[in-house]
Amino acid sequence: MAFSGKYQLESHENFEPFMKAVGLPDDEIEKGKDIKSISEIHQDGKDFKVTVTAGTKVVLYSFTVGEECELETFTGEKAKTVVHMDGNKLMVCVKGIESVTELNGDTIINILTFDGIVYKRISRRIS
């Protein structure tokens, strides 16, 4: 399945406890809790380019599945890691945050886990 497309956050669960646990300041949590972020994904085989727009903040990610890359955490820290792919799932661990992103038709479900706290995001394809 190809991840390419534009997706808008439809719902999320456990945002505030998760963001507190990863160290995001309270004012940033307050600003971000109601933002419906847009993720634009371009996939070419194992190469991915992802642009996430959340309000005025834009974050760009580029990675090749199975190769070392640098990704940014929610707090802006950068860390080297390797993204893995298994069928329609992308898996990565960055600074103790485990992320599994699954494509299911026009829906992307992203489950993030840190220190036993689970944050679930559901986004729908808009183009």
UniProtKB/TrEMBL annotation:
Q: Which Gene3D superfamilies match?
A: 2.40.128.20
Q: What does this protein do?
A: Binds free fatty acids and their coenzyme A derivatives, bilirubin, and some other small molecules in the cytoplasm. Involved in intracellular lipid transport.
Q: What is this protein called?
A: Fatty acid-binding protein, liver
The entry's family comment says:
Belongs to the calycin superfamily. Fatty-acid binding protein (FABP) family.
What Gene Ontology cellular-component terms does the record carry? cytoplasm
GO biological process, alphabetically ordered: fatty acid transport
Q: Which residues cross the membrane?
A: none
Which UniProt keyword terms apply here? Answer: Cytoplasm, Lipid-binding, Transport
